[in-house]
Amino acid sequence: MSDDAEAPKKSFYIFGRDVAQIPCFRNSFLYGISGGIGVGVLAFLGTSRPHLATHIGFGSFFCGTMVYWMACRYQWSARRFEQQQLREAMRRQAMYEGTTVERELDIKSA
Description:
3 helices; membrane; Cox20; mitochondrion; transmembrane helix
């Protein structure tokens, strides 16, 4: 046995999916949890009612997680779409390089 061998990473699975592989999952939950705890503590300090503060904290956790998740996934999807467009444009550029089609495109774009 060598010391260089890495231990297998332990992953958390929900419905058969590794949550470490889901984009935006980690940040969404971290921001949701911290926001829920913060708002819950502030609600308790303001009202001194633990039951109400718990409901407010959980509600802010849920809403914060969902809002951050949707915003992050939208940005991720937009970035992925742009990357696919760029990849296709680079493929076409490589295919047309040195042909008359490239010269025609250069004349049109100039």
